[in-house]
Every structure is written in C-alpha cells, then in structure tokens.
Amino acid sequence: MGALQDKKGFICDMDGVIYHGNSLLEGVKPFVKWLQDTGKEFIFLTNSAERTPAELSQKLMRMGLSVPQKHFYTSALATAEFLAHQKPYCSAYVIGEAGLMNALYNEGICMNDVNPDYVVMGDTRSYNFEKIEKAIELVNKGAKLIGTNPDITGPTEKGIMPATGALISPIEIATGRKAYFVGKPNPLMVRHAIKALGCHSNETAFIGDRMDTDIVSGIESLIDTVLVLSGVTSKEMISKFPYKPTYVLNGVGEIMTCDN
After folding, report:
1. Left if phi > 0, otherwise alpha if psi is -120 to 50, otherwise beta: which for 64?
2. Which residue, 92, 114, 116, 246, has most beta carbons within 10 Å?
3. Is 260 a residue whose pLDDT tops 50?
4. Residues known to be catalytic
C-alpha cells in the first residue's frame, strides 16, 4: 500500500490521536488491530503524566482495546528517569497525579516540601494557590524547576483544557526561573521509544496531533512524521510553522487505506 504501511515501528501519541478524554476516536480500533495483526512494533508515547502504564492499559481496555502496559511510555516515566540520572536519590516537591508520583518513587526519588532538590509539575486536576505558593517559595530557595511536558493545552471530551505548560507558568513568572521540560518536543522521549521498539529511525514513523511537540520531535529525531487532524491542529494551521510533517491524515484509521 505504500511507504507508510511498510514501516516496521510506530510511535503513537495518545491524546488527540487515540482518544479525547474517555472517548475513543474513529478508526482507532481497526488501526490497533492492524498493528497487532501485521506484527508491527509500536509504543504509545504520551506527554500526559497523570496515569501509569497500567492505568493507560486499563483505560484502553474499558474502551474495547487490549494493549499490554509494555506498549506505553509517559512523560512521568521520562521525568523520573531524567532526575534519577541527574541526581540519584534526590528529593522533589511534586504537583501532579498518581502516574508522576509512582514514577518518581520507583526511581528512588523522595517527596520533600522543606528543602527539595527539584520542584516538579505535571498534569493535574488538584491545582490550587497553596501548592503554587509553596512551589514558588521552594524555587526561590534554590530548588530547580522541572515540567513533565511543555503543552499549554490538551484535548479532552469537553474540549481544549490547560496542560502542564500553562499550569507551571505562574511559578516561572513569579520566580523568574524557566522550567526544564522533559517531555516532547525534548528528543529524550522519542529516543527512548526508538530504542524500545528495536527499529532503526528510517523504519519508524511518529504519529501525533501537535505540530509544536509531536511533529517537531519526530523531525529532530530524523524519523518520518504523521500529523493527524483529530486533535488540536487543523490543516490551516500547518503553514504557520517553519517545518512540515511527512504525511497529513484525518485520523489513524487512514493509515491502512492511504495510497502513499
């Protein structure tokens, strides 16, 4: 059918590509079945840090998809691995959900709201002024500011909602410190995914819905990119960026039928 279908490995974003919130997107079930039936290597790579791989696997199971947790890699896991490499057994003040907390604990990183090495922000629904105030205090005292991902917004079944990049901005503004973001478009995550797939970069495609994170991270990792218009990017928005994806499709369901 073409060059895209012949790829051995697929790195696939989740929010806006596989689902919006708790709603599975059109064409996803046959796409995942195609990946599994054809023996493709694949990994779901998400900038969301809220859920663990086990929770993501269970979420897809509730939607009728059976995908083992080994196929998931999140910005929470990437952040925990990054901090453990930078400073083993460090401590952190964390604003985030269970996926981020568990990832940090599993890397030997302790929670600390007195004199932590890092202040870490992830996607969260428990966002309040008290936590922001504490984070500002600790960053001003010397803690380094880390964000799991730079996304300003993310798609949900209720529409576009603020994500980590927006939530961390008050801390950046109040302290004058810029956060270091571990998630996409930082190539750390894509490099991990390529290694996990066991495929060469020219055998791999990256599928995402965001030009500013997914597509640019794929380009900088020297792999073909697929922009799907099922998330936050419209066809009209593509020309605003100084780079372009290799393919533009309405959704992942078109990958099995498109003529490249």
Report:
1. left
2. 92
3. no
4. 13, 15
Overall CATH class of domain 79-181: alpha beta
What is the C-alpha to C-alpha distance for residues 14 and 208, in angstroms, rounded to an integer?
8
> What are the CA-CA distances from residue 207 to residues 22, 126, 178, 182, 196 (Å)?
20, 30, 29, 19, 16
The string of pLDDT tens digits covering residues 63-74 is 999 999 999 999
* Cα-based angle 56, 59, 60 (whole degrees, multiple of 5): 90
Domains 9-47+185-256 and 79-181 share a fold: yes
Give pTM, 2 decimals: 0.89
Q: What is the mean pLDDT of residues 13-31?
A: 92
Q: Which CATH class is domain 9-47+185-256?
A: alpha beta
- Which residues, 6 or more positions from 17, have their beta carbon under 8 angstroms from its beta carbon? 25, 207, 208, 209, 228, 230, 231, 252
- Sorted by where each begins, the domain ranges of the chain are 9-47+185-256, 79-181
pLDDT for 68 equals: 96
For 185, the token pair is 């478009």
Strand partners for 12: 44, 207
Sheet order of strands, 9-12 included: 72-74, 41-46, 9-12, 204-208, 224-228, 247-249
